[in-house]
């Protein structure tokens, strides 16, 4: 409040850009969202959120109505509107499977720079290989006259799907990579709404002001750490499986040490989604290019541990069904298997790189008649894995099944009644791929239960 706030634009209205644009309008900024996808822009202007994110619909409609928020496919209009332009386009995994594809960053920055007619700040938010900010700065220099003085900065984001609105409005830190006082002041003004909201709630949001490289690295380092934490506990699960230990109790016990902490220590089917798997691979590829590949070699192990959890579920399924494993893995032909869960985690409709869907596909490939149920992800799953059969309820999926595999920890599955399901199923055998069921309750209801990393 007080000082005038910059007008802000968000280029790319995917998951990241749409969420930011809407939340920034909610913080009181004048906002324009830009995308090349006319369909997406029309939907957003009509008050329709293209993604499933709790709370976002209401904020979109409220801020459209308040006139603070607009979406456009016109890059000249976008360039004219903004004092600060946030680049929020995707950086998918390259076709070679390792590095990041920066073609959307290049296209959006070039198009924007060519249309700028006054001084502005271009801020990268997309997850990128370290060194990209310098490259963007050169790109901007090439496409704007020197006397405009357009500057570049980097400010990574840490949104978690399902909590994205709160993560924008109430972030646990703000990181900015800047080269000048002007850019620093401009970015401070562009975050002022977040600091002001924190002040009214008697909180503080720590601000880390740093250089380009560090700002870029913070993002991938954070995701690499989270992935490593998950693979660490899954590695312990493997050792528990070999020794008769129980990884859930182990995790609880080590988690009481505040230096370790109890979050992100949930052993199970491992991490998926659009970020963690792709980010650790791109990070390794970039480190290799920089001659620092050795430093991140462990991330390769993190990846392998993570992928081995899928094989483990197949093994447990084969054990329960009495199927021998051949050289090509177990054969499930003639069995009907219910798969509960398709999304990469609960409370989202996102199935990108989802371990649940990957296992469902593997079971089907090995001959099983797979029936999938997911509370939100069916529509997206059908697009990626059309060969699977999708059901409209837990009961429909479980009816007649020889085996039930719970692969995403939706509350609906946790709360399902094993007695009722036991009457519907052909065989009372369950693999709990996320250790989310009450093993005692299921066992009492006559189910043969197998968890991950537990006896
Ligand atoms: C992740 C990070 O948590 C965000 O901070 C980051 O901003 C985001 O990636 C990104 O780079 O954009 P997200 O992909 O939404 O967020 O998902 P997470 O909640 O981190 O979960 C990732 C995966 O790890 C899920 O498949 C989840 O099932 C799995 N997981 C998580 C475990 O297997 N065990 C755990 O203990 C925690």
From TrEMBL:
Pathway note: Nucleotide-sugar biosynthesis; UDP-alpha-D-glucuronate biosynthesis; UDP-alpha-D-glucuronate from UDP-alpha-D-glucose: step 1/1
GO molecular function, one term: NAD binding
UDP-glucose/GDP-mannose dehydrogenase C-terminal domain location: 338-439
Record's catalysed reaction(s): UDP-alpha-D-glucose + 2 NAD(+) + H2O = UDP-alpha-D-glucuronate + 2 NADH + 3 H(+)
Keywords for this protein: NAD, Oxidoreductase
Presence of keyword NAD: yes
Similarity remark: Belongs to the UDP-glucose/GDP-mannose dehydrogenase family.
The name this protein goes by in its record: UDP-glucose 6-dehydrogenase
Species whose genome carries this gene: Micromonospora rifamycinica
